[in-house]
Write a structure and sequence with these properties.
This protein is mostly helical. The protein has one domain.
Length: 76
Amino acid sequence: MNDYHREILTSALDARIKEATEYQVNITNFSLAIERIGDDPELQDFKANLQGLLASSILEQRKSQIMLDVIQSQLE
């Protein structure tokens, strides 16, 4: 692997680490908000939206983690 290839992978690795971390922050925030809403009847639509965002964030984080792992494996 040449230096330029390594530089691109290193940059991509940093971006994927940031991306996975951002997903985790969202996952935590959505989970805590859902818990806080509980059974409040006025907030059930909001809770449903948050549950959709949570599911989406979990899936996207899994994808991001796969790409992060692939990049890391190339740098080892």
